[in-house]
Amino acid sequence: MKQYQLSTGEKKFIGSHLLVAILALSVGSLFGPLQAFEHAGWDIYPYIKPLIKSYYQGLTVHGVLNALVWTTFFIMGFLTFNVMFGLKRPLKNPTLNKVGFWLMVVGVVAAAIPILANQATVLFTFYPPLKANWAFYLGLTLVVVGSWVEGWGLFMTYFAWRKENPKELTPFIAFASLVTALLWQICTIGVATEILTMLLPWSLGLIAGVDPQLARTYFWFTGHPLVYFWILPAYISWYAMLPKQAGNGKMFSDSLARLSFWIFLVLSTPLGFHHQYVDPGIPPVWKFIHSMLTFSVFFPSMMTAFTVIASLEHAGRKNGGKGTFAWIGKLNWSDPSVAAQLLAGILFFFGGIGGLANASYNVNLVLHNTAFIPGHFHLTVATAVTLSFMGISYWLLPYLTGKKLWMPKLAVAQAWIWFVGMIIFSNAMHVLGLLGAPRRVPLGLAPYVPPEWNSRLFQVGVGGAILFVSGACYLTVMLMTALSKETVKEEVEVPVAESMQDLALTPVWLDRWAPWIYGALALIVLVYGPVLFDLIKNIALTSPGFRVW
Amino acid sequence: MAKKEHENNDEFRPNGTIAILVIFVITTILIWGTIYMILISRGSTI
Amino acid sequence: MSAQPMHIHPYERNWMVFSAVMLVLFATAVSVAAFGMGIQVPAPEQRVDPRIVATDPNSPWSNPGLREVSPGKYDAYILAHAIPVWEYLPKEITVPAGSSVSFYVTSSDVQHGFKIQDTNANFMVIPGQVSKLTIKFNKPGTYNYICTEYCGSGHGIMYGAIIVTP
Ligand code: HEM
Ligand SMILES: [Cu+2]
Ligand SMILES: [Cu+2]
Fold first, then answer.
1. Residue C102 is assigned to a structural domain of this protein
2. C136/B25 touch (CB, cutoff 8 Å), yes or no
3. Which end of chain A is more exposed for a tag (fewer CB within 10 A), N or C?
4. A302 and C15 in contact by Cβ < 8 A?
5. Percentage of residues in chain A having pLDDT higher than 90
6. Measured CA distances, A208 to A63, A205, A545, A546 (Å)
7. Neighbour-count burial for A334-369, b at 16+ CB within 10 Å, e otherwise
8. Is the pLDDT of residue A396 over 50?
């Protein structure tokens, strides 16, 4: 059966997302190894001074380009693809989506200028009263607004599809992508409020000061669900695409997969205080409530683990795998897309464990702002998400360009090198954190580093070097594929796994949007309302801005 | 394993999945427990 | 789509129950530590004006340092700042072993962190707010307190020390 095809223009549109994303990753990731080398005592920053003035200017570039630009562009492109391909129809209003995309591009440029001019060395969390140039805040706003507009384009497409297919179950990849886009719309209200009511007017000189505690609270309203915005697209691929690629497996449970996306929508915003456990301005009882909600949102991830592994086991057994574990070897490890995503998934286990520890209320006292935290999120956003996206791009780029993937063997090696480098890097960072090493510090120069940390700092450098090699391999494969003259013979097949369960059994309430949306909003009002009300009532705009970099 | 189209998933018994998840849970308890013990050993903050 | 209740594979049902039990156990352990053993996170203490907190003679942070409130019990008023240089005031505190010290920390400029190595004191220092935790020092030795939030180019050199004498 022939698959639904995107038009050339549509492919170009998705491809432009991929292009910006990969450009951001290339520049952003360059600084990762430099930071790791600095930790190991191999300080390269003095040599790049004409370009990048300091460790912290580099760290700002690293955080903003990797965590914000690479992710957001890749995700918006992937979600848009999933909606069109899943619903088998073009966008309702492609111009709207294009406007959204270009707003994001303009935003990135606007934010990049002050960053490169060392006028916005505030790191990707931009905590006030560190005060960046106004163009930085304006740029971020445009990126967020652009992503909203693209989201609206997706919702309009869904409404149009629904009108044409009033009785049909929304195909899973479209459904899950729409939920992810919706989650983003809800949660970004926090950071939008922070920038529009405080940071932007303040940086323009319209107000004299800001309230840093309130700003942090707005920021983390968005900050936690942000990590779900990153990981859910990877989940979509793991649930619905990877089993097919790994050996023609089927998705184990369509209903539970949908249920877990709904739980993510409802639960991932009202728990941002787990990033503020040690903030002075928030009552512990509310922190505790958010910690309990955080434990709850771990639950759908446990469900995801089950469904994804069971679907993979289905694939492995279809390929003739036997025994309790031997089927794992029968998965299509020689397909770079499969290898990358399986390895990403394996490291995500450990990312999940670290996240659970961070989120455990007072346990956070041991870990807060130590090197454990970057250790943790390089397993999650920098591996589970990034390596999965790399894996997706190994079939998506050939699909979009009609070019054959250049040297698939190198692509497989790339995934393994990342895996090995990340194990060394992240293990060392976790241990350093437990020993008390802070994050966001050029530890190669810090005066209080005891000798016990040195062997681990060295491992950070080694891991960084290996990761650098892997990143270079990825770029080479992408670039050579895009430039290659060798085209694919047939259309690249989009891997979408069938459901093992009869879709007619998926309960109707899993395809109803309103109750879940109301539930999500109600819970936010309930667990954020009182604290935000108090903070806003007692707002003190007493912090003028500082440029201390 | 389900052969017929549009079946339930009941006949597929993912025993390997259960084994992997059990290993995961044990690892989680060990790592989480280690950090929790660090916290406990350092004592009260009020 | 179906109007029937959702079908769940028995393995998966068991896994879901088991996951829920595990999470409840973790939550219980955390609660015991918090409410049984007094290992708590900071609570709102008081609000200050960061523009004058270091200079106003009525502010304890205009004269930061240690005050003994009763035998073996101390209040430590600590000011974190990036201007004129990145440092804590005071830079050093000395207490005898067995002392219980309540730390009251605030900032006169940007956000900072405050983490006393090998203890459970680890919190944000936010201008306009006062962060407080109380730590008992039983073992003699030197405990560095280090800044754990980016506060500008000198963030990595910002630290002080508590000397616990036998
Ligand atoms: C190429 C491999 C990479 C290496 C060697 C690397 C290394 C590092 C190191 C050493 C730090 C800690 C800096 C500090 O705390 O002072 C860091 C921070 C960070 N990294 Fe990476 N990284 C890499 C790739 C990535 C990727 C792919 C992402 C995200 C998609 C990412 C996201 C971040 C973020 C968000 C931070 C925190 C920045 C901050 O504290 O403001 N990194 N990285
Ligand atoms: Cu979070
Ligand atoms: Cu500081």
1. yes
2. no
3. N
4. yes
5. 91
6. 28, 7, 8, 12
7. ebbbbbbbbbbbebbbbbbbbbbbbbbbbbbbbbbb
8. yes
Cα separation, A16 vs A310, whole angstroms: 35
Decide if C7 touches B, using CB distance below 8 A: yes
- For chain A, the domains span 8-441+449-537
Ligand 1 binding pocket mutation candidate from A35, A60, A71, A275 (most atoms within 8 A of CB): A35
Q: How far is it, in rounded angstroms, from Cα A269 to Cα C19?
A: 21
> With a 6 A CB cut-off, is A374 part of the ligand 1 pocket?
yes
Are the beta carbons of B12 and A314 separated by less than 8 Å?
A: yes
CATH number for position C77: 2.60.40.420
Quickly count: other Cβ atoms within 10 Å of residue A460's Cβ. Answer: 30
Q: What is the ipTM of this complex?
A: 0.96
CA C80: distance to chain centroid? 13
Show Cβ contacts of residue A291 under 8 Å, excluding neighbours closer than 6 positions: A271, A273, A274, A277, A359, A360, A361, C27, C30
The pLDDT assigned to A491 comes to 82
Ligand 3: centre distance to CA A396 (Å)? 44
Q: Is C107 domain-assigned? A: yes
Please report whether residue C161 resides in a domain: yes
DSSP string spanning A442-467? -TTT-TT--GGGHHHHHHHHHHHHHH
Tens-digit pLDDT profile for residues A204-213? 999 999 999 9
Q: Give me the count of residues in chain A.
A: 549
Burial class (CB in 10 A: 0-12, 13-18, 19+), C146: buried
Q: Which chains touch C (3 or more CB pairs under 8 A)?
A: A, B
pTM (two decimals): 0.96
Instruction: Decide whether any atom of ligand 1 lies within 6 Å of the A390 Cβ.
Output: no
End-to-end CA distance of chain C: 73
Q: What is the helix (H) or strand (E) element at residue C143, kind and residue range? A: strand C141-146
* Average pLDDT taken over every residue of chain A: 95
Q: Is C28 a domain residue?
A: no
Whether A314 contacts chain C with CB within 8 A: no
∠ at Cα A374 (C34, C112), nearest 5°? 65
Nearest in space to A66 (alpha carbons), one of A34, A96, A37, A23:
A23
Q: Residues 6 or more apart from A203 whose CB is under 8 A from it?
A: A131, A132, A133, A134, A136, A137, A545
Q: Find out whether the beta carbon of A131 lies less than 6 Å from any atom of ligand 1.
A: no
> Domain A8-441+449-537 has what CATH class?
mainly alpha
Q: Domain containing C119: what range? A: 43-165
Count the domains in chain C: 1
Long-range interactions of A324-332: CB distance < 8 A, separation 24+:
A324/B15, A324/B16, A324/B19, A325/B16, A325/B19, A325/B20, A327/B16, A328/B16, A330/A247, A331/A246, A331/A247, A332/A245, A332/A246, A332/A247
Confidence (pLDDT) at C166: 93
Q: Could you tell me the distance, in angstroms and rounded to a whole number, from the CA of residue A304 to the centre of ligand 2?
A: 18
Residue pair C108/C135 in contact (Cβ under 8 Å)? The answer is no
Which residue reads 């454990």 in tokens? A372
State the pLDDT at residue A503: 86
> For residue A504, which amino acid is it?
A
Instruction: Walk across the sheet containing C141-146 and list its strands.
Output: C92-96, C159-165, C141-146, C112-116, C122-125
Any atom of ligand 1 within 6 Å of the Cβ of A22 = no
- Residues from chain B that touch A314, judged by Cβ atoms under 8 A, are 1, 12, 14
